[in-house]
Amino acid sequence: MEFLEVNELAILRWVHILAMVYWLGGEWGVFQTSYHVTNPALSLDERKRHMETAYRIDILARTGIVLLLPLGLHMGKIYGFVPLLDGAGVWWMWLFFAVWLAMTWTAFIKRETDIGIAVTKAEEWLRYPLIAALLVTSFMAFAGAGPIETGPRNLWYPAKMALYAFALCIGLFLRFVMRGWTTRFRVLAAGPDIFQEAALAREIGLARVAAYVYWITIASVCFLGAVKPF
User: Fold this and answer.
1) DSSP readout, 20-72?
2) In whole angstroms, what separates CA 81 from the centre of its chain?
3) What's the rounded mean pLDDT across residues 46-68?
4) What is the pTM (predicted TM-score) of this model?
5) Structural domain of residue 183, as residue ranges?
6) For residue 194, is pLDDT > 90?
7) Is the pLDDT of residue 51 over 90?
8) Pick from 172, 214, 171, 179: which is nearest to 199 by CA?
């Protein structure tokens, strides 16, 4: 326990880096796999195998993105930026994100079932108030109105929080696309369907544009956390 107490910040920073690596790397893996998932020249079974690979890669990215926020908030508490988390507050915060992570993994494990789709939708709805709360908190911090303690050299912290919220928005869209794969492939299993193929091609085209913005946003979050420029 003494080791953990002495090295608490360093350990949190280490896990934070790992989560960021899995987030960024996982998104690249899903991006590349999507070319095969949406390729109508391949057999349906082959495309479904690539879809399974994409889901298995994506769960690491989803785990990383979920963990980044509580890790960042916990480190913010140590830095003195988030006084609301003093005392038992940090444990309630971790309990909330443990539930969120459990929902994420349940949606992954049950992804081919109606239960999995329902949990996925519930987890997506959870993100809307979270995104709003992060954006409002960030803007309040820039205005010096709390609840984040800000100063002349720690505005990078609410800026990073706002970028993370923006990344969650992009992630929501990409999740809609991936969730659509499951329902569309159920239709395609019954036979060729040009409308489903056209929808897949249209959605993946938009998703690839969003993915580039996603990577730039993730890189910006990394930059703010590492350099702390303002």
Assistant:
1) HHHHHHHHHHHHHHHHHHT-TTS-HHHHHHHHHHHHHHHHHHHHHHHHHHHHH
2) 23
3) 89
4) 0.85
5) 2-227
6) no
7) no
8) 179
